[in-house]
Amino acid sequence: MRHATRIFTRRLCASLAALSLLTACSGIQPLPSAAPHQPFTTDPGQYQYLIGPGDGLSIFVWRNPDVSSSVTVRPDGRITTPLVEDVMAANKTPTQLARDLEKALGSYIKDPIVTVTATGFVGPYSEQVRVVGEAAKPQSLSYRQNMTLLDVMIAVGGLTEFADGNDALVVRIVGGKQQQYSVRLEDLIKDGDISANAELLPGDVIIIPEAFF
């Protein structure tokens, strides 16, 4: 079954390549490549959780239960609460958002005191760690303070039997520029070589290639 899937994948790639050639000949323009996004956190020791689309938020306004609410951050990063519409929540800490809501509510309530608590943790896309290629469960993960390669590989279920783990790469944006770092995932996972472990940063992309037999 796995062999059949690999054959299908290779045929699909060939078909896509042919389609790309046809697109070029027909004058249809391809989508532009996405520009690399600088992550907000570049030092694990200074990490503070930032709100992202899809996060659940509990908003408590002291002595004003009618204005308190629970909301989900919309895909555009904004929220709507009683008396306040379309407040940008994404890329802010809960404390920063609380201060913004206090300012907005100040037009209706005298000296409002707001507390914002995150009840779901997705985070901004620029802060997520992504694993692609020959992982058992490729996915995006919310960054956690002091997250390491080992933590991520446990979360994605390790490597597939076809992975070339010791040729894996970590792609990271540093100073607005993309850099690549080699990592030894096979030594880390299969041999228990803790020296192969490494600390990750928000926005890292782990690319695990397929081995050529």
Helix content: 10-25%
The fourth-level CATH homologous superfamily of the largest domain is Outer membrane lipoprotein wza domain like
Give a short account of the largest sheet: 5 strands, mixed
Structural domain tally: 2
Give the second-level CATH assignment, the architecture of the largest domain.
Answer: Roll
Give the class from helix and strand content and strand pairing: alpha+beta
Total helices: the number is: 4
Give the class-level CATH name of the largest domain.
Alpha Beta
**Unreliable residue runs:** 11-16
Give me the side-by-side strand order of the main sheet: 7-6-10-8-9
- Mean of pLDDT: 89
> So what's the overall shape?
elongated
Separation of termini?
A: 18 Å
| Chain oligomer state | single chain
Please compute the radius of gyration using only Cα atoms. 22 Å
SSE string, helix = H, strand = E?
A: HEEEEHEEEHEEHE
- At the fold tier of CATH, the topology name of the largest domain is Outer membrane lipoprotein wza fold like
Number of β-strand runs: 10
Our estimate of the beta-strand percent is: 15-25%
